[in-house]
Amino acid sequence: MKSKNTSLNSEKNTNNMNQHVRINKYLSNAGLCSRREADQHIKMGLIEVNGKIITELGFKVKASDEVKYDGTRIKTKPFLYILINKPKGFIAAFQGDKIDKPVQDLISTKTNPGLIPVDDMGRPMTGLLILTNDGELRKRLNKSKSTKMVYKAVLNENVTKQIINKLKTGQMVYNKLLKIKDISHIKGKPKNEVGLEVNSIGTSELVKLFSICGLRVVLIDRVIYGSLTKKDLPRGKWRNLSSKEVGFLKMMS
């Protein structure tokens, strides 16, 4: 006799198989092309679903459908969501250029195909970083203006009240106004070490923001990303995000 949990899991899997998505999103999720390019392929009659050529842009498919592009079957891949506590020496590059010691090297080869960092992190930068092959979520997180991020930063000089005021007021960085939501010295630490909270500001942007205010970043470590923390995640280690954690990320973006 099947257990209740097994029955629920079976029902969940069946629901996932029967879930309908627009054909252009399906093609984009499969890594074939962008949604805009998918629309062009559909108009040209290059897309076939279950043996029938599809020309309707709003057509919806489910996971169990056989979808072909120009006669070749498209194989979808499951979305993966990884949280890593990035160490020094590795680099996270959103653009995917060939680099030495990419952060993906820290993740097992069976897990990392197609994983791209949500944002860039240089070699000296450490802390929480999300990698995923879900391009739609990456775009949404990058466009988000409300994702809570908490950092620890060490600067080359003391952070004065005047500098704190400038950071809170905001400065123009890469043609947009960036400001620190909250910043304070760390108790028991030198005055060149601060903790700060921001909304959707990445490490490279923070480095530039401090530079505009006359300070050079010696170390910067992201300790909180949205609802995610470094709890039970040592430096250099990674884990899969739970469906609940992924759901929170989608709500924030």
What's the quick description here?
By secondary structure, the protein is α+β, with helices and mostly antiparallel strands. It contains seven helices and 17 strands. Strand 8 (116-117) and strand 9 form a beta hairpin.
Per CATH, what is the topology of the largest domain?
A: Alpha-Beta Plaits
* Number of continuous helical runs: 7
Structural class: alpha+beta
Q: What is the first-to-last residue Cα distance?
A: 42 Å
Question: How would the blueprint of this fold be written?
Answer:
Layout: H1 4-18, E1 20-22, H2 23-29, H3 35-43, E2 47-49, E3 52-53, E4 60-62, E5 67-69, E6 72-73, E7 81-86, E8 116-117, E9 125-132, H4 135-143, E10 148-155, H5 161-169, E11 171-173, E12 176-178, E13 182-185, E14 193-199, H6 203-212, E15 217-225, E16 228-229, E17 238-240, H7 243-252
Parallel strand pairs: 9-15
Antiparallel strand pairs: 1-4, 2-3, 2-5, 5-6, 7-9, 7-17, 8-9, 10-14, 10-15, 11-12, 13-14, 15-16
Helix pairs in contact: 2-3
What would you say this structure looks like, in words?
The protein is α+β, with helices and mostly antiparallel strands. It folds into three domains: 4-73, Structural Genomics Hypothetical 15.5 Kd Protein In mrcA-pckA Intergenic Region, Chain A; 81-143 and 234-244, Pseudouridine synthase I, catalytic domain, N-terminal subdomain (Alpha-Beta Plaits); 148-225, Alpha-L RNA-binding motif (Alpha-Beta Plaits, 2-Layer Sandwich). The protein is built from seven helices and 17 strands. The protein has helices at residues 4-18, 23-29, 35-43, 135-143, 161-169, 203-212, 243-252; strands at 20-22, 47-49, 52-53, 60-62, 67-69, 72-73, 81-86, 116-117, 125-132, 148-155, 171-173, 176-178, 182-185, 193-199, 217-225, 228-229, 238-240. The strands form four sheets. Strands 7, 8, 9, 10, 13, 14, 15, 16 and 17 form a nine-stranded mixed sheet that branches. α2 packs across α3. The longest helix is centred in the N-terminal third of the chain and has 15 residues, at 4-18. It is elongated. The two termini are 42 Å apart. The model is unreliable at 1-17 (pLDDT under 50).
